Amino acid sequence: MSVTETDLCVIGGGSGGLSVAAGAVQMGARVVLIEGHKMGGDCLNYGCVPSKALIAAANAAHAPQQPNAFGVTPTTPDVSYQGAMEHVGRVIETIAPHDSVERFEGLGVDVRQGYAKFVSPEEVEVDGHRIRARRFVIATGSSPFVPPIPGLESVPFLTNESLFDLRKRPQHLIVIGGGPIGIEMAQAHRRLGSDVTVLEGATALSADDPDIAKVALDAIRKEGVVIEEGALVSEVSGKSGAVTVKTKDGREFEGSDLLVAVGRKPNIDKLNLDAANVAHSEKGIDVDSALKTSNRRVYAIGDVTGGMQFTHAAGYQAGIVVRSAVLGLPSKARTDHIPWATYTSPEIAQVGLTEAQAREKYKDKLKVARADFSGQDRAIAQDDTRGFIKVMVVGGRPVGASIVGPHASDLIGIWALAIANKLKMSAVTSTVLPYPTLGEINKRVAGNYFSPMIFESALLKRVVKWVQRFLP
């Protein structure tokens, strides 16, 4: 059996793995990249890219139907579900060359297509060939978790890996799972003309601040999406086009199609990690703060570690690994500055601690500043004033920010910057932004933090009076 020796072997051609491979090879390292399925991974083919493309199509279908203050008469557009899904396909095709085998081979990466398995702590085998590397990076991502619900094995159902293959609009989509994926796809399908019911065993959007989640969920319910919380599924039955879902409290829900969106599982089954002495569990591969596994030759990044399951988190971790594995420099990953967003309408975004988390950690040292979109001039001009922002502040520095409202996913950036660089609130208030922009709400909430200190200070008022007496 032939053996290839290399400096770095990257297993997984998703966001994290591609970032490591591209960075390392351009710095002069020898790199082998192994991908068993599609280049670009879940994000390009089944996750971030197709879901946001479908949401864009759904938003375009929804907008003309809404009463507004613009003097435009609402109309009912002719919506083609097939056309929306074809848009999704075109978006993937447009981005795919950036993640392609050809591009990475052009960079100098030795790309192998097949599933890798470890045969020793320093070797993997792929397609009858062995790769021996000084360092390995496991970036195999995650897959949809399918719960052991009775009857599910005999009823056709969708996950995010098969949803975007549809060309016929579901008449009534039942979504099991009220997390970000389930709620995003529920609203998108409602806007594209489907009836939608979401069944969540606990609380929908439970990872977010409950005040923030309520604004989004209320808006989604208002559009006609039925969201049932505390609805733990006990049994599924039926056939294609006629599905019945029962919950433990005795309720029944009928629909035409079923989407299972209850979480993710790490892709570790094919890796033979025991041969590499890599500690792992059903939650994923164990890593330390430097993203090293129990085998010091092997790193793991992204979803496969069971941590933050975001494309941008994997990309950030890739930079940590390149610094360590390629340059030999000490580097540790952190998570407090990594934001996330849910692309509903209105959007949700979060970075750092929620209010509840901050109160538990900092007690009476915490101050919370808030600003509503109802007082934001650009939001008023655009006739979308739903939502608010709140920032958790300790010692003059933000430790968390929560936003629900228009373009929340963009607005969270300034707070991610502030937390990442340990900036004070004064850095935001001193920033000059163009008027009128939605970004001004960030400056307003920072100003609201300082307002009580300035305008309610008796000492300051006495100082001002004294100064005014002596000014010419």
From TrEMBL:
Disulfide bond residue pairs: 43-48
UniProt xrefs under Pfam families: Pyr_redox_2, Pyr_redox_dim
GO function term, MF aspect, one: NAD(P)H dehydrogenase (quinone) activity
Top-level taxon of origin: Bacteria
Residues of the Pyridine nucleotide-disulphide oxidoreductase dimerisation domain: 338-441
Cofactor: FAD
SUPFAM superfamilies per the UniProt record, alphabetical: FAD/NAD(P)-binding domain (SSF51905), FAD/NAD-linked reductases, dimerisation (C-terminal) domain (SSF55424)
Keyword entries, A-Z: Disulfide bond, FAD, Flavoprotein, NAD, NADP, Nucleotide-binding, Oxidoreductase, Redox-active center
Binding site for FAD: 52, 140-142, 303
Annotated positions binding NAD(+): 177-184, 200, 263
Entry's cofactor comment: Binds 1 FAD per subunit.
Stretches assigned to the FAD/NAD(P)-binding domain: 7-318
Protein family membership: Belongs to the class-I pyridine nucleotide-disulfide oxidoreductase family.
Protein name (Swiss-Prot/TrEMBL): FAD-dependent oxidoreductase
UniProt lineage: Bacteria, Pseudomonadati, Pseudomonadota, Alphaproteobacteria, Rhodobacterales
